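If you are new to this repository, start here. Below is one unmodified record pulled from the training split, so you can see the exact layout before writing a loader.
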Amino acid sequence: MSKKDLTQKTLLRLPDVFASLINFLIFDNCPVIHPDQICPLDIPAQFDYDFSLNPVYRDASAMVLDPNGHPSFIVNFENQTAHDPTMPVRAMGYTDTAYFWQRSQLIKSSRPSLPFSLSRFVLSLTIVLHYGKDPWKARSLHEIIHLEQTSLLKPFVSNYTMNLENIAWWDEERIASIGSDFRFIADYCVQMRKSSKAGRTRYDPPAGWKIEHVEETLMTLAAFSKDEALREGCWKYLEKFKLNPKKGETTMASVLDHYFEKKEKLYLEREQQYLIKEKEYQAKEKEYQTKEKEWNKQLEKKNLEIESKDVQLAMAARRVMERQGLAASEAFDLLGYSSQTREIVQRLLYN
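And here is the target side for that same chain:
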């Protein structure tokens, strides 16, 4: 899911989007955390590396500062479009990685420049954002390891249950209350989940929702969407089209209306060009049919002339044969027929 992951990272790393999700998921949608309290972090994974042996970074991670600018807690968001039975271990690793990062900051004598001063460990949590249509049950560490074989050890094994959000099953009224562009992503997931049974995959965005981050939101929807018209509309808008400021604020509905208006106009122009070419083709076809009829008449006339001439030659040979009692070959010699004429006349004589 590299393309989806890349665009989602871009959207989630925007401070206002990150803050809105924390408020939505942790503080019952109360405006507790503000965008200026979000300090994005790039914390490399301890064990994940790409093909170039470079460390892989979390989808979105940020230090949340308190109103006085001091570190309060760390939140990691991880994107998933499909179920992964190993996710409890992965999520636990993401959380632990944030603690290891804090440890490295605390014991270093020279620390990188950060907009905050870390003097103690702060709480770290990971939330898995699941975008798929099928609900995914959050599983714990105890559920994926075989503790029944070593039941005596269970009290010594700390359980870990991943924090999981099935976005496609969020309540629509709550989604409308999300204070960032992430509500478009959530609304899209819900619509696709509800419409999949009916075989309709067209996304109809709420007309009144304003887009703050047009590029990041459209890129995300384009990456997630199976609606070719929506994907094409999003990318075409980003590549070429600009909204007319006189039309008012930018909304998802206005972006798609703008695109489909352009597309309809282009379609009509192409349809007109097609009709013109079709008329030209029909005119040429009619002209060709007229000429073909003329050619057929001329050919038929010529064939009749040839056939009439061959019959006359055969009749002449027949008369010579009857009057002088000659064989066909002798009559042909007497009349001076060529070898080709002889073959044609002989065939006529005996048919």
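Two things worth knowing about this chain: The first helix runs from residue 2 to 12. The CA atoms of residues 75 and 125 lie 5 Å apart.
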